Amino acid sequence: MEKLVITGKTPLKGEVTISGAKNAAVAILPATLLIDGVCTIENLPNISDVKKSCEILEGLGAKITWNTKNEITIDTRNINKTEASEELTSKFRASYYIIGSMLGRTGKISVGMPGGCQLGARPIDQHIKGFEALGAKVEVGQGKISASAEKLVGTSIYMDVVSVGATINVMFAAIGAEGTTVIENAAMEPEIVNVASFLINMGAKIRGAGTKRIEIEGKCPLDEGVIEVFPDRIESGTYIIIGALLGNNLKIKGIIREHIESLLIKLKEIGVHYEIDGDTLTISKCEHIKPTYIKTLAFPGFPTDLQQPITTLLTQANGRSIIEETIYENRFKNTVELNKMGADTKVLSIHKLEVNGPTKLNGMDVTATDLRGGASLLIAALIAEGKTNIDNSEYILRGYGDVINKLKNVGAKIEITE
Ligand code: UD1
Questions:
Q1: What does the pLDDT profile of the chain (418 residues) look like in tens digits?
Q2: 286 is catalytic
Q3: Catalytically annotated residue among 54, 117, 220, 286
Q4: Residue with the nearest Cα to atom 34 of ligand 1?
Q5: Contact, 239 vs 19, CB < 8 A?
Q6: Pocket residues for ligand 1 (CB within 6 Å)?
């Protein structure tokens, strides 16, 4: 069990560089299974989900070489297994991408039930619906998912729920299907564009990634590919929120404005000022934060993954804010810990939270319950009076690469202990 120890209230000055996007990286890595060859992936974030994805690929027979701390070469010419380690796949949710990519490659795979943060039901019915529509037989039981297909055939699939995971996973399987597949009501998140660019770079024919309708022509010959994982929009948003609370001309480098527009506009609305020059955003502490209403939505709406981090910001707003969480039904667990620190939040229903501010936060022992909830506690600890110990910090390390050094370099007092 790792613990973060943070002493709050130090102003943050200097530059933080944003790492590659977790949710793009965990899809790009298994995408390499779609070819028999060598791929290079640049700008991988230094996070545990990436390491676990690599271990799963190695377990299937891939040969991985780390060229630098953030660049990897993956040789998939000797994939010789169709069963992925149940222990590893059950540790994080994005392990489900092995199903689509192996279906696309060999038409057969068995994995443990994907794990990940407990944010409610989180079914994978849309993934399964897509695989079955392409002709695969999918069996779920005894903690395992097995999928197989003699032949996959392209078809039109309507996603009943907008899901990044289901969109990418079905795109992977469709690469190995005969003919054209159309995904309607696809998710439009930028990570899908990053993954599709990689596949296109390898020779795939994909049109419309980043829109509601994606068309994939299957069975195109694929060759070795290179891709750079683009900067993480959720990590960017988290550091911007930290800057609004503690920044002293804090510079955040690696911003793609279009990816975080919903957050930037919301911050402007509540009185937070920042400047953007190229890919760098400069921000200082905002003295008068206005309360607001936030509703989480699929991209380009306000991201659910920033809902918990911005909750901490709103504990410092002058008045009553309401947050409506429309994607998950169990994403306010962090508020129990925030309230212990002095926040005044009230869960009004499984989808609605009230935050009253401003409240003084005090350092104490708290426990991270999930990745972004952990981030909300980290932000709270940085603005709290005194010392905070965050237990279960593994959650935070799953999504925030080099977080300790990044924060230390700009002046935060933060350590990690076992
Ligand atoms: C992605 C992100 C996650 C983010 C989420 C919403 C990855 C690896 N994860 O997850 O960090 O929080 O987008 O922006 O990219 N759902 C179904 N059936 C399905 C799939 C999803 O009903 O087959 C529903 C879930 O119950 C939930 C919502 O869709 O309400 C999102 O589900 P989840 O699977 O977490 O979303 P992804 O889009 O894959």
A1: 789 999 999 999 999 999 999 999 999 999 999 999 999 999 999 998 999 999 999 999 999 999 999 999 999 999 999 999 888 888 888 889 999 999 999 999 999 887 765 655 678 999 999 999 999 999 998 888 999 999 999 999 999 999 999 999 999 999 999 999 999 999 999 999 999 999 999 999 999 999 999 999 999 999 999 999 999 999 999 999 999 999 999 999 999 999 999 999 999 999 999 999 999 999 999 999 999 999 999 999 999 999 999 999 999 999 999 999 999 988 999 999 999 999 999 999 999 999 999 999 999 999 999 999 999 999 999 999 999 999 999 999 989 999 999 999 999 999 999 8
A2: no
A3: 117
A4: 122
A5: no
A6: 23, 26, 93-94, 121-127, 161, 163-166, 187, 191, 303-305, 327-328
Q: Which one-letter amino acid corresponds to residue 236?
A: S
Distance 358 CA to ligand 1 centre (A): 32
Structure tokens at 329: 């039904």
Query: Would you say how long the chain is, in residues?
Result: 418
- Residue 324 sits at the vertex; the CA angle it makes with 319 and 330, to the nearest 5 degrees, is 120
DSSP state, residue 416 = E
Instruction: Please identify which residue in the block is written with the tokens 């918990």.
Output: 308
HEC states along 248-317?
EEEEEECCCHHHCHHHHHHHHHCCCCEEEECCEEEECCCCCCCCCEEEECCCCCECHHHHHHHHHHHCCC
Q: Of 117, 125, 164, 172, which is best to mutate to test ligand 1, by the most ligand atoms within 8 angstroms of its C-beta? A: 164
